[in-house]
Amino acid sequence: MAVVAVWKCDRDGAMFDNKKDAEEHDKMLELAANITSLIERHIDGISEQAGEEIGLLLAKRREDLAKACKGKPEILLEEKEEKAETETETAQDSDDDRVTPFVANQ
């Protein structure tokens, strides 16, 4: 039996096969949480779910937002497949029998 190292994100349970991708995903989720908090503090009446969806969208498109702020606003109108979203969905949906959850005090 082979041992496969995986990194699991605490925030959403997404699993990655390398530390760099896991840390990048975690930073994106932290940014999304902070954006959500900002939105909820400044926009009255927004639902928690809508705030979270907006925060996640903006965090995933952070590079495009930076370009838009530097004079290319049209970039936000382009549809792009989100790499992080696809990886997260794949990681969460896969039933990999090589990965076993850790159990404390066994």
User: What is the share of helical residues?
Assistant: 40-55%
Task: Find the count of extended strands (DSSP E, 2+ residues).
Answer: 2
* Low-pLDDT runs: 83-100
Strand order of the largest sheet: 1-2
Region (Disordered): 78-106
Organism: Microbulbifer marinus
Biased composition (Acidic residues): 87-96
Protein name: YebG protein
What does this structure look like?
The chain has 106 residues and is mainly alpha-helical. It has a domain at 7-79: Orthogonal Bundle (Arc Repressor Mutant, subunit A), CATH 1.10.10. Helices cover 53% and strands 4% of the residues. The chain is built from 4 helices and 2 strands, in the order E-E-H-H-H-H. Strands 1-2 form a two-stranded antiparallel sheet. A hairpin with a 6-residue loop joins strand 1 and strand 2. Helix 1 (19-42) packs across helix 2. The chain is flat. Residues 83-100 have low confidence and may be disordered.
Please describe the topology of this protein.
Layout: E1 7-8, E2 15-16, H1 19-42, H2 48-60, H3 62-69, H4 83-93
Helix pairs in contact: 1-2
